Amino acid sequence: MMQVKVWRGGANGSFQAFEVPRHASQTVLDVVTHIQRVLDPTLAYRFACRVGMCGSCAMTVNGVARWTCRTHIDKAVKNENEITIEPLRNLPVIRDLVTDMREFFDKWAKARGSFQGSRTRHDDFALISSENGNRKEVNKGIECIGCAVCYSACDVVAARPDYLGPAALNRAWTLVKDERDSMAMERLRAVAGDAGCHSCHTHMSCTERCPKGISPTAGIAGLKREIARAVLKGAL
Amino acid sequence: MHSFLWLAQRASAALLALCVVVHLATMVYAVRGGLSAAEILARTQGSLAWLAFYSVFVLAIVVHVPIGLRAVLHEWLKWRGASRDMFLLLFAAVIAWAGMRAVLGVFL
Question: What's the CA gap between B73 and B56, in Å, rounded?
Fold first, then answer.
């Protein structure tokens, strides 16, 4: 049996302790699901795919932001008798393990995180080689599942809540490097400044924690370089 | 404006990296060589090269430090806006005055 402490309530809630049976290959999400299905059906948490694709189930496990469906208990905790599960940090808590992610996704929109092509249905396909240097840069950051683990781990988000955060900036970077996109300058303008990439402290917590192995820090550094070039050319 | 500040901080950091190395190497050399204060002053007084070097050093600090402090004041004290920027301009002026006073002190 494991002793599991789970956050209950909103921002001013408290921990509730549960005893959960230990199984081989058990994930943190398995533990939370066991609590809700067997011990306390009022526990609120969020998940969908269970296979690391949807980005719904991220939580803070023993102080570290993780995707719980792909986090095995034996990897996440050293002492199985002390597991603490909390909602993600830097986001408002709705109830128990569920956070309000609106702010997180609104910042993707603020960072101009949507693709804006210039071709119409009458034009031919844009042919971009997989060997293309810009495309290779895009590939490094494109697998983001929007789980907000990086956002939760970011010290700058904690210090200045208006900061766009690693995920939104990484998204902006993949679009800046997308040769089909036609909005590069507007996007650089949106991510420059105090709420954008210039506030990154390069602590690399996002890179350390990203479950998909993406380095938002590298993308943010790339945005700084592109903005510096644009400023020196007088384009920004 | 913010992008320009960031560029200025990066450029001044590059200058500082060089200046600090030269400054430390000079200090280590002067101390280990057993130079007295009078001997050091004999080398710096009237030396345009040292005047130029330390003036650049002070200028880089005057640019670099207030921009860094700007972020620290925002993130630690939540102080932003015109009052913070006025304080930073004043702070830059104080560093410039103190730094150049020291530089001229060993030049004249």
Answer: 26
